[in-house]
Amino acid sequence: MAYKKEDHYDEHITNPLTTHYKSVIELLGEDADREGLQKTPERVAKAMQYLTQGYQMNAADILNSAKFKEPYSEMVIVKDIELYSLCEHHMLPFIGKAHIAYIPNGYITGLSKIARVVDCFARRLQVQERLTHQILDAIQEALAPLGVAVVIEAKHMCMMMRGVQKQNSVTTTSAFSGQFEHNETRSEFLRLIAADLV
Ligand SMILES: Nc1nc2c(ncn2[C@@H]2O[C@H](COP(=O)(O)OP(=O)(O)OP(=O)(O)O)[C@@H](O)[C@H]2O)c(=O)[nH]1
Ligand SMILES: [Zn+2]
């Protein structure tokens, strides 16, 4: 994402966020003025804007920016797209992979645009279930394909670093539309994302 280079941070957001994070550091019992922490509030303010930059993105614009007329009508699968999101309950990361497929109906999109749509919705405060559906809906609406499939596997830091403290649980969510609602097509997709082809 080329977006949010240093000079793209909005000072109207960065400045008050910096003030708030200084208070957070102090409330946590630290000396916000000690050398190592002096620039931390501003760094965190920028990091949080980076991690939530999906709010400034539009999935339809992303997909339509490279939409091509093409008669290919088999499944297109982009798998193992890494994703970094923040759970909306604790604002802690959840990290994983998305596997996405669609069956074109006259139009294809640039492959990178599929990954960008993942970022568009992942870089927000999220729950994994909604993230899964938002990706599906965006592709369905922009390309009107014969079907879309989205599977996301993720590990939630709020279940690992705190709370229930389970280090190995992985959450899988899925959403299917159109032809992927039929068992045969869905099974082909699931088989192909499980396969080690490259
Ligand atoms: N369904 C869903 N739940 C999530 C997701 N991310 C975090 N959670 C859960 O959100 C729930 C919030 O539950 P609460 O009981 O309100 O919060 P809590 O007291 O911090 O809960 P614990 O994590 O169990 O300590 C927890 O069960 C989290 O595991 C997500 O993407 N989807
Ligand atoms: Zn959480």
From TrEMBL:
The GTP cyclohydrolase I domain, residue ranges: 19-193
Enzyme class: hydrolase
Keywords: GTP-binding, Hydrolase, Metal-binding, Nucleotide-binding, One-carbon metabolism, Zinc
GO biological process: one-carbon metabolic process; tetrahydrobiopterin biosynthetic process; tetrahydrofolate biosynthetic process
Residues binding Zn(2+): 87, 90, 158
EC number: 3.5.4.16
PROSITE patterns, A to Z: GTP_CYCLOHYDROL_1_1, GTP_CYCLOHYDROL_1_2
Gene Ontology CC entries for this record: cytoplasm
Pfam families: GTP_cyclohydroI
InterPro entries: GTP-CH-I_C/QueF (IPR043133), GTP-CH-I_N (IPR043134), GTP_CycHdrlase_I (IPR001474), GTP_CycHdrlase_I_CS (IPR018234), GTP_CycHdrlase_I_dom (IPR020602)
Tagged with keyword GTP-binding: yes
Similarity-based family: Belongs to the GTP cyclohydrolase I family.
PANTHER family in the cross-refs: GTP CYCLOHYDROLASE 1, GTP CYCLOHYDROLASE I
Name the UniProt record assigns to this protein: GTP cyclohydrolase 1
Organism: Taibaiella chishuiensis
Lineage: Bacteria, Pseudomonadati, Bacteroidota, Chitinophagia, Chitinophagales
Gene that produces this protein: folE
